[in-house]
Design goal:
Largest sheet: 5 strands, antiparallel
Number of strands: 5
Structural class: alpha+beta
Shape: extended
Number of helices: 3
CATH topology of one domain: OB fold (Dihydrolipoamide Acetyltransferase, E2P)
Strand content: 25-35%
Radius of gyration: 24 Å
CATH architecture of one domain: Beta Barrel
Distance between the termini: 41 Å
Helix content: 10-25%
């Protein structure tokens, strides 16, 4: 195992947090994360979210992703003991690298909900039903299930192939065209 930090997307937890000032005096949120990389090595990495006019929108969004439910970020100055950020739930961080003074440093580029941006536009059930209304996908799902193995007795569910009758096997004609 190597302790070299590699870029990628990793599940992480908040270890500690604070408020500090940038070199020009702008307040910034500081969050220390712990994560395991794909090799199983554990790393700590810090993220700094600026409250500068050009960055505060992203900092606020990221703090909310980390569980901040208040309106006054100064409470982050009290650190991990005050419960302002969630330290028990995993989130996803994207680790990348930046160049500064001719040196390369790891940095947290993005903070995402588990699943990352894949779930950013997640729909509620009612909205999803409205989107699928009129598509009549039942036949396409039934066709896709043809030729799949029968699940074990009592093991059906939303992701399982349908149970076939005791004397009925899924039909497959070896002369049919295979679409791949």
């Amino acid at each position: 195992m190597s302790n070299e930090i590699k870029g990628g997307t990793f599940k992480a937890k908040v270890l500690d947090y604070a408020i500090s000032a940038s070199k020009n005096g702008t307040p910034q949120a500081c969050v220390l994360f712990k994560y395991k990389d794909d090799d199983g090595d554990t790393h700590d990495i810090s993220w700094f979210g600026s409250f500068h006019e050009n960055a505060k929108e992203y900092t606020v969004r990221d703090l909310v992703t980390l569980g901040f439910s208040g309106n006054d970020p100064s409470v982050l100055a009290q650190g991990v003991g005050n419960g302002a950020l969630n330290t028990t739930e995993e989130i996803e961080i994207v680790v990348g690298f930046k160049e500064w003074n001719n040196k390369t440093y790891p940095e947290v580029r993005y903070i995402n909900e588990p699943g990352g941006s894949k779930f950013r536009n997640k729909m509620e059930l009612g909205e999803a039903k409205m989107k699928f209304n009129g598509m009549n996908l039942g036949a396409e799902f039934a066709e896709a299930r043809q030729g799949r193995a029968t699940p074990a007795p009592g093991k059906s569910g939303p992701n399982m192939a349908p149970k076939f009758g005791a004397n009925e096997d899924p039909k497959f004609d070896a002369n049919e065209d295979i679409p791949f």
